[in-house]
Amino acid sequence: MAVAWEEYFRLVFQEKAPQKPVEQNVVHFPPLLRLLEKKQELAAVDQDLQVQKEEFHSRMATLSQRWAQLEQKEQALKESFIRFDKFLQDAEARRGRAQRRAAQEGHGVRHREAEALRLRAQLEELRRERARLQRRLRRLEPCARLLERVLEQMPEFQEIPELVARFDGLVDTQAALKLAERKRQAELDETHAQLHRLRETKQDELLRLGQQRAQLREQLEAARERTLQWESKWTQIQNTAAAKTLLLGRTRMAVLNLYQLVRLRQSQPLDMDVEDTEGQLEEVKLFIMDLSATLASLAQAEPTVMVSSPARQAAKGT
Question: Phi-psi category of 157—alpha, beta or left, where left has phi over 0 and alpha has psi -120 to 50?
Fold first, then answer.
């Protein structure tokens, strides 16, 4: 714990400093007297301060002792708490062990009781089984006597167990044969079912193929009809092309004849190619245009000639 020594000494000095009396008329002492007075005051203050220091140190020593005692007591108390906690833990552990032991003992008792009940029930079951076996033995006694008589009649068997073993073997063989027969019957049923499914599948497939065949036949008929239509159209196109070709040939021959007549009329040689129909037509066109112009000029000159002829006739009459 930190102690503010300066503050403590200042407070003590203020408490112990002599208070100056309030006087109405202040008497001014010489400086030497004031100095002596101050020294006396300081000595008194130092003495009081020394006393306060000793008291403070004694108090601090007392407090330190008390703090040490308190720490020792606190440590002892902590140790007591630790021992008490350990005691509580030990007590709790002992109590838990005692409870577990009691629970185990109770469980063992219950287990033994349950085991006793189970053994009693098993004993009762064994008694009932014994009674049942006795009743069965009494019921099978005629069979045993019958087996003895059979054994007497069948010398190949020496003991009844051999006969029973043979009978059991025959029964097992019969059971195996029945099992094999059931398996074969199951396989046969499965084969019949597979055959039935296969027939149904094939019938469905045949039906589907028949429908597909009918569709294909319809498509074939439609294709044949379209083929006939296109063949007729092709024949018509060929006939039309032949007619057009014939007409073109005739036209070209007519143009060639006209061209030859025009060139003969003009007294000029045939200088164009026979296949140049357009050029021949152009020559014929020019000739016709020239001829038309000539005819137009002759038509304009003919009225003048007709007017002059009656005038000459009148003059001759006079």
Answer: beta
